[in-house]
Amino acid sequence: xxxxxxxxxxxxxxxxxxxxxxxxxxxxxxxxxxxxxxxxxxxxxxxxxxxxxxxxxxxxxxxxxxxxxxxxxxxxxxxxxxxxxxxxxxxxxxxxxxxxxxxxxxxxxxxxxxxxxxxxxxxxxxxxxxxxxxxxxxxxxxxxxxxxxxxxxxxxxxxxxxxxxxxxxxxxxxxxxxxxxxxxxxxxxxxxxxxxxxxxxxxxxxxxxxxxxxxxxxxxxxxxxxxxxxxxxxxxxxxxxxxxxxxxxxxxxxxxxxxxxxxxxxxxxxxxxxxxxxxxxxxxxxxxxxxxxxxxxxxxxxxxxxxxxxxxxxxxxxxxxxxxxxxxxxxxxxxxxxxxxxxxxxxxxxxxxxxxxxxxx
Length: 361
Prior knowledge:
Layout: H1 4-21, H2 24-33, H3 36-39, E1 52-53, E2 56-62, H4 70-85, E3 90-95, H5 106-112, E4 117-118, H6 145-152, H7 155-162, E5 169-184, E6 198-201, H8 205-213, E7 217-220, H9 223-232, E8 238-240, H10 242-247, E9 256-272, H11 273-277, H12 281-316, E10 320-322, H13 326-347, H14 349-359
Parallel strand pairs: 2-3, 2-4, 6-7, 9-10
Antiparallel strand pairs: 1-2, 4-9, 5-8, 5-9
Helix pairs in contact: 4-12, 8-13, 13-14
């Protein structure tokens, strides 16, 4: 749990980042002159600085999901490996569940140096100038996780990560969560079932187009706000891997989960460029190796965590679990097919062609 100084810092940084966001000129000047870090609140002790101190180096790693999800467990593994292999000289402070930054501000915080490392969902890169990352949001592009890894572990994925330096970010790798399923207070097994529903989505033009193609109304909300919005009836349903659905207790406010497996949810592990390049080469190598091993661990347990969550949902019995038929899935695929063409027009047909070639093996 965060201590008192962490809580105070968390409250203060939200006000400061919000102020910076309200002044594009100030943010641009700060980034250009290296003053971004100085404009943001500095914590009271070195354990939160994300820079070298007499006591060593501390890395602030923020994410928005629960600690017992694949990403949360991988982040904890990363912390343990770094601290063990550095003999405690490098400390990693992990802030889960959006305690430090949330969906709306974590990317800007990273660019400004208010946090050192993130593992944001791939959807978030579209709104900072990398719409090609929205390939991962396309419905029914990937038949299974093996096909996803042909991109994330191949040349196309490396090309995507390399481009992030244009926004002062260093792309360090990819991590799986799993495939998303639809939930609401009724089964969602074919397009007709979505008519009129307000469906929570994360910020992604592809996901918004997907929901509209199915007949629903997309509503963009932060992940941390989703359960409350579902309980209050602000939105009617959402999409998530089962592990997120379970760990956020959405089964308490959604009566039906339909195992549509329609799209993939994954993350990119990224660092602030100035922070990364300011470390000694040996430290970067140690951290990169620990990240690679932690991401591999997270990928290995992703399926198991989702299966475990599904078993828990069945045992609790508060949510009905539905499996679409082959005919229903065909209707879903047909309805969302135009979303692929829309993305190709925005990012260029070459990106989509390369992705399909990679997926096809």
